[in-house]
Amino acid sequence: MEVFGYTRVSTENQLENYSIDEQEERIRFYCRAKGWRLLKIYTDGGYSGSNTCRPALQQMLAHIREGETEAVVACKLDRLSRSQKDTLYLIEDQMLAYGVDFISIQENFDTSSPLGRAMIGILSVFAQLEKDQIAERFAMGRIGRGKAGYYHGGPTAPRGYRYEGGELIPDEGQAIQIREIFRLFLDGKSIHAIGRIMEETYGGAWNAAGIRRILGNSVYTGKVKFAGTEYPGRHPALIHQEDFERAGQLLHTFSAQTQETSAAKSPFRAGTLLSGLLICGRCGARYAGSHGYYKCYSRAKGNRRYIKDPDCKNESWPVPQLDALAVSFVRRMLEDIVQALPEAESRRLFAGLQEEEKSAEVRLAQIHRQTRRLLDLYQNGAFPAPILSERIVGLEGERAALTCRLENLRQQERQAANICPKNLWDHFEQSDLDAKRLLIHSMMEAIVLDGENICIRWRI
Prior knowledge:
With 460 residues, the protein is an alpha/beta fold. Helices cover 55% and strands 15% of the residues. It is built from 16 helices and 15 strands. The chain has a five-stranded mixed beta sheet with strand order 2-1-3-4-5, with helices on both faces. It has a three-stranded mixed beta sheet with strand order 10-14-15. Helix 7 packs antiparallel against helix 8 and helix 13 packs antiparallel against helix 14 (385-417). The longest helix has 37 residues, at 343-379. It is flat and about 95 Å long. The termini are far apart.
């Protein structure tokens, strides 16, 4: 009889316990003992038995349909499949239907006999049970690692960390970049502007999607996540939880606005101060700034998706007039906030700035030592000049960026030392449109307009 052989392993660990070579040897020995002619052995190395998307298996099935064999031999039924449904499909619809029998060496059955065909269903049930138990144990192991605080992202660590010994270790050079991204975002810079600033300051390519992932990654607060659940991580946090939550709130707010109105495709780029905040109190549609006026979408007769009531007669507002009213509300709120600012909060602000300043100083000292070490190696003839030059240029670029960042931190400390309503208001007035809009969005959830009546929904 002319037969095919089939072998499979799913993981590197399984290669040691039930290797491809061992399976092939058993199939060859079995065929010689039976006096069968082994035409070919089809091998799927590193493929799961939970589905049939395996190249060698599909190639073998194609040759079976062409009538090239009389039987298929495997060491064990679960080598063919660990799914009960797939096992029955492969044997009954893809083999027996074409006059090809299936033979399992370990279970000692073949489908050429009635008893062998009866055993297929029974053994496939146990094969699937074993697969489900393996998956359950694997998931429980990963949950256990998550609860213990271990990172699940594999050896490729998120920017800001190194992966060493199964744990995340802060990379001080990259950690400064992560803190800078959060600082710029919370200061009102757009994601695209942050990308340009990071490229100019640190080099490399920074795209909007990557920055969004950083702003939304809770690993930077010292947490790990598995199956949608967060656990306290073993690694140090790079970002304060409060700053991360503020950034997440802003991301969520702007994302929701983007879905509701075309005028808010990029809230940071909007041309008016209150874009994305204004809601019609009569029909519920959004307001958009255009040609010097904030107008209800239902009245503007723009995109039909944003019209709530074509007959809405709500008033339009001159942009300068409504902006001035909103800013006056903001000023009063800022004065109340600063007057009520507890001393403990001031200390926390100082502590955060000083912590980041200390990290920058530590990294600068490391760069200084690395540079001296490289020069010593070069003088001793242990380091070629081209590689030395490349390393020195990279370290010098990082040193310049850190020096600039350190000066910014010290300036923030000086500003925080003199915090008062007047200074905070001056800072608001001197900020660009992006920063002003960011502050207003962080304070207000919505501004509802009903004729000449204004209702502000505050976040704080």
